[in-house]
Amino acid sequence: xxxxxxxxxxxxxxxxxxxxxxxxxxxxxxxxxxxxxxxxxxxxxxxxxxxxxxxxxxxxxxxxxxxxxxxxxxxxxxxxxxxxxxxxxxxxxxxxxxxxxxxxxxxxxxxxxxxxxxxxxxxxxxxxx
Length: 129
Known about the structure:
The protein is mainly α. The protein is 78% helix and 0% strand. It has three helices and no strands.
């Protein structure tokens, strides 16, 4: 009797639980066409691969242009620094040239002095002999 009573209680609980889900749809479900689904999946992946290839090529060109631009920026930075240093060197040379011109103007070319004549050593030579 206890087993029957427990079974009836379990059935009531189960019916109550099933009623909580509402009406159960018993529409038959057809089996999916695996070949068609695989074909559709392949099509989707092929389209993705094609789009990715186009995008990768565009990104590669963009990267090349960016690398080229960065190279030119570095080149310009180095050249501008070189130009700045060269201009500074030119200004320093021009300043030295001014100094040299002033010195040259204040110090004209001079003739060398004539050599000193040999001393007359005849008398000493005679005394030695």
